Structures are given as structure tokens and as C-alpha cells.
From TrEMBL:
HAMAP family: SHMT
Residues annotated for (6S)-5,6,7,8-tetrahydrofolate binding in this entry: 172, 176-178, 298
Cofactors: pyridoxal 5'-phosphate
Short name of any one Pfam family annotated for the protein: SHMT
Gene Ontology annotations of biological process type: glycine biosynthetic process from serine; methylation; tetrahydrofolate interconversion
Protein's name in the database: Serine hydroxymethyltransferase
Organism encoding this protein: Mycolicibacterium iranicum
Function: Catalyzes the reversible interconversion of serine and glycine with tetrahydrofolate (THF) serving as the one-carbon carrier. This reaction serves as the major source of one-carbon groups required for the biosynthesis of purines, thymidylate, methionine, and other important biomolecules. Also exhibits THF-independent aldolase activity toward beta-hydroxyamino acids, producing glycine and aldehydes, via a retro-aldol mechanism.
Quaternary structure annotation from Swiss-Prot or TrEMBL: Homodimer.
InterPro entries registered for this protein in UniProt: PyrdxlP-dep_Trfase, PyrdxlP-dep_Trfase_major, PyrdxlP-dep_Trfase_small, Ser_HO-MeTrfase, Ser_HO-MeTrfase-like, Ser_HO-MeTrfase_PLP_BS, SHMT-like_dom
A GO cellular component annotation in the UniProt record: cytosol
Subcellular location: Cytoplasm
Length: 487
């Protein structure tokens, strides 16, 4: 399957989708032509660049078209069958179908399709864990109906009773996400937090170090999952660690949900049978609309189900409908072939870097992403990201473990295989992608400004960006994006 179709669909589907987009653009153009122009330009730009951002993909026309309907106009705060607004019967159908597909696809006891993003999904999960696992602090005992009725002294005593609110998550520089307890994020404020990292010598997760940190810190929540760790995680081991210290295991599988759905990650590498709560986005390797999802065991389901209005604004019913369509696609056999190709292609890209002597964090990959240490080219991540973009290669800079350039300039570039795999790229094309990346980086030099060496400015040897962009265009033209689509 390519980005031109959905599983089991062919040329007729692509032609019909093309007509739909042409009509939609004509309608938009009649009101605000600049938006129609920007929409056309976005497609042209996505068609003409190597999209290697590990968290991006190309959703099918069925998923994209599902978002453009009148479900967008409906308020539906609450949950299925229990809404704060009238006339939600069709939203109930949509949300129930999204949840059913998610449960069936991932083998989860319960699924919640409302989160608007991965961050929202994580907030719902944290709320649900606190609500389920932290003993109610006994307002009634203090003669108060809500916290605003409490005296200062009672408030302090209440705080003392609130118990363990500690979170242990993977650090940002070793591949964790902002929402895993990073201090500038709300997760680092609502919990006492501590971070685990990776083995400084290998870059791999060290489960005995995680266990030691958990024994010492005794967290309420152990968070596993990552957005920039290029290796698989043994979730059975993470659950053992959580159980030993009485923690709740929450797994954020936003990046690799497609590999779980496509049965590339099974057994100990499938988080769903091992975690109490699993969160994900739907738009990364899962190839759905931009949004979030929470899966949970029955114990946590009642609290997760209160996500709206506890944590979330009204559900985006048009996006929940598109989640249902994307999850239906992911249940087709073709999606397993796609997911395996995502992993194989990341491997091919990593091998391509290794044979060209480029330094990789952990020395390779066994998931969908590759983290290149660009200090081997004498560059910062910021310089490398910009130089690659000049050559039509879209990536994002990313911190590497103990990054000497910090989280803004960084020393790494993160590459992912999901989007170009959707486009039809195979192992040979990913090897060529590695070749083009290395050609740009070895011809890029840091620039020196009035204050000395710059971490942002750079120069590329004459002609290299144009030559690489032309070579990228050849690869892209051989694997067109939505080829039946003319605007
Ligand atoms: N922004 C996503 C990513 O790129 O990994 C995570 O939030």
C-alpha cells in the first residue's frame, strides 16, 4: 500500500479522492483564496521533500476527508451515552466505533478516543492514575466540601495526606518526552519527579539502573516509552520493576504505536498486556489523524472515561471519526506489511549511515527511528537540520545523551522511516537517503560570526544542496505522493 490508497483500495479510490479534493479546493477558494493556495503549496512541498521527521506520516485520503465534515460543528462533552449536550447520538456511534477498533486492534480492555493530542492523552492518564491510586484525602473529615473551604492549616494537613505523587520517567536527552516529568512541562510540576537515563557507554536502557532508581525513589507512576530512543523496550521487565515497588506502569507508545498495531512489537515488546495504562498519538507510525488515544485496564477505565470534562475540552468528533477510519485501516493485513517495512527501512537507513562512518546513538536501530550524532561532522543539530532542509531533506534536530549543545542547538538529528515507507520507499531508497544526508553534512561547515563560531550559522559547499535536492527529487518522483491527485 502507498499513500495513494487505503488497504484494499485502488485506482478508482484514488481518482474519487482527487475529485473530492478538487471540489473542496474550489469551495475554499471562493471564500479565502490564500488558504486554498497555501493548501496547494503544502501538498507541493510535501511531494518535493524527503520527509524524515520520525513523528510524521501521510494519512490516507479516507482519513483526511473524514475530518472535513459537520461532526466538527457538534459539541459532545461527556462520554458515550452520557453527554452534557443533546443530540449526540451520531457522535456516540463515532466514538464507540473508534474505541471498538482500538480495543480490537491492540487487544486492550478499554479504549478512550477523545484526547486531542499525545500530551492530552498523557494528562488524562496521569489524572486517572492519581484518581485511582491515591487515596481520597478526606475533605469531609475536615468539614469541607471543596478545597476552597479549607483553612490554611487544614490545607497543609490535606497536602500531607495526599500521599505518594512521584513519577519516574525517561530523561529528555536520552529519548524520553517532555510529558514524562520534564521540569518545564506540567508533568514535572504536578509530580515529584525523577528521571532515568540510558547506559552512558552503550546508549541502551539499563534495566537494572531503572530498577535501582525505582527502589530508591518509590514512584507512584513509572513511565516507559520514548520519542527519540532508537531501540525496543522490554515492557515485561518494566512491569516487573513497577510491581516490585508498587508503581503503576504507564507506557507512552506514541512513536511506535504503528509497530505495535502491525505486530512488529509482540510479546515483551508489546506494551498493552504489560502496562496498566497506555497512551498514544494516532498520527505518527499509526498513520491516522492528528490526535490521541488512551488504552487502559478495567481498573483505570472509570477514571480515564472522565477525561472530558476533567482534563479535556469537548471532543473533536470529526477527528474521532477519522481515528475510527485509520484504526479500521490498521486492522487490515496490509498494515502489518507496512509496519514491518517501517522497521526494515529504518534498519537499512542506519546501515547506510554506519557504512559511511556516521556516528549513531546506540550504534543503530531496531525500531522506526535513527539518531545521528552530528558532532562527527563538526556541526550542531541546528546547523545540520538547516543544511539538510536546504537540500530538500526535512528532519528535526534532537538532543543526544548528555548533549554538549543543550536542547535548543542540540548535537543530533532524528530520522524516521514511517512517512517515506508509506510513500513506497524500500531498503535501497533508504540507503540512498543516508548517502544524500552524509553528502550534505560532510560538505557543511560551521560559520564564524563576529562573536566567534556560531552554533546556528553554516555554509554548504557550492552546488551541493542543489545536486542533492535533484537526486532526492528523482527518488520522490519514482514514489509519488497521492499520484492520482491533481489540484
Ligand atoms: N512532537 C513529537 C515528536 O516529534 O516526537 C512528540 O510530541
Amino acid at each position: 500500500m502507498t499513500a495513494t490508497s487505503a488497504p484494499g483500495q485502488g485506482a478508482e479510490y484514488a481518482a474519487t479522492a482527487s475529485e473530492a479534493y478538487q471540489a473542496a479546493l474550489r469551495v475554499i477558494e471562493s471564500v479565502e483564496p490564500r488558504i486554498a493556495d497555501a493548501t496547494r503549496k503544502e501538498l507541493a512541498d510535501q511531494r518535493d521533500s524527503l520527509k524524515l521527521i520520525a513523528s510524521e506520516n501521510y494519512a490516507s485520503p479516507a482519513v483526511l476527508l473524514t475530518m472535513g465534515t459537520w461532526f466538527s460543528d457538534k459539541y459532545a462533552e461527556g462520554t458515550i451515552g452520557h453527554r452534557f449536550y443533546a443530540a449526540c447520538q451520531n457522535v456516540d456511534t463515532v466514538e464507540a466505533l473508534a474505541a471498538e477498533h482500538a480495543r480490537e486492534l491492540f487487544g486492550a480492555q478499554y479504549a478512550y478516543a477523545q484526547p486531542h493530542s499525545g500530551i492530552d492523552a498523557n494528562l488524562v492518564a496521569y489524572w486517572a492514575i492519581l484518581a485511582t491510586r491515591v487515596e481520597a484525602p478526606g475533605l469531609a473529615e475536615l468539614g469541607a466540601k471543596n478545597v476552597n473551604d479549607l483553612s490554611e492549616a487544614d490545607w497543609e494537613s490535606l497536602r500531607a495526606k495526599m500521599g505518594n505523587q512521584r513519577l519516574l520517567g525517561m530523561s529528555l536527552d536520552t529519548g524520553g518526552h517532555l510529558t514524562h516529568g520534564f521540569r518545564p512541562n506540567i508533568s514535572g510540576k504536578m509530580f515529584y519527579q525523577r528521571q532515568y537515563g540510558t547506559d552512558p557507554a552503550t546508549g541502551f536502557l539499563d534495566y537494572s539502573a531503572v530498577a535501582a532508581a525505582a527502589r530508591e525513589f518509590k514512584p507512584l507512576v513509572l513511565v516507559a516509552g520514548y520519542s527519540a530512543y532508537p531501540r525496543r523496550v522490554n515492557f515485561a521487565k518494566m512491569r516487573e520493576i513497577a510491581d516490585e515497588v508498587g508503581a503503576t506502569l504507564m507506557v507512552d507508545m506514541a512513536h511506535f504505536a504503528g509497530l505495535v498495531a502491525g505486530k512488529v512489537f509482540t510479546g515483551d515488546e508489546d506494551p498493552v498486556p504489560h502496562a496498566h495504562v497506555v497512551t498514544t498519538t494516532t498520527h505518527k507510525s499509526l498513520r491516522g489523524p492528528r490526535g490521541g488515544l488512551v488504552l487502559a485496564t478495567e481498573e483505570f477505565a472509570p477514571a480515564v472515561d472522565k477525561g472530558c470534562p476533567m482534563v479535556l475540552g469537548g471532543p473533536l468528533s470529526h477527528v474521532m471519526a477519522a481515528k475510527a477510519v485509520a484504526l479500521a485501516e490498521a486492522r487490515q493485513p496490509e498494515f502489518r506489511t507496512y509496519a514491518q517495512a517501517v522497521a526494515d527501512n529504518a534498519q537499512a537507513m542506519a546501515d547506510g549511515f554506519i557504512k559511511r562512518d556516521a556516528g549513531l546513538v546506540t550504534g543503530g536501530t531496531d525500531n522506526h527511528l535513527v539518531l545521528l550524532d552530528v558532532t562527527s561532522f563538526g556541526l550542531t543539530g541546528r546547523q545540520a537540520e538547516s543544511a539538510l532542509l536546504d537540500a530538500g531533506i526535512v528532519t528535526n534536530r534532537n538532543a543526544i545523551p548528555a548533549d554538549p549543545n543543550g536542547a535548543w542547538y542540540t548535537s543530533g538529528i532524528r530520522f524516521g522511516s514511517p512517512a517515506l515507507t508509506t510513500r513506497g520507499f524500500g531498503a535501497d531508497e533508504f540507503d540512498r537517503v543516508a548517502d544524500l544526508v552524509v553528502e550534505v553534512l560532510k560538505n557543511t561547515q560551521p560559520a564564524t560570526g563576529p562573536n566567534g563560531p556560531s552554533k546556528a550559522k553554516y555554509t554548504i559547499a557550492d552546488g551541493v544542496a542543489a545536486r542533492v535536492h535533484a537526486a532526492a527529487t528523482e527518488l520522490l518522483d519514482a514514489n509519488p505522493l497521492y499520484p492520482g491527485l491533481t489540484l
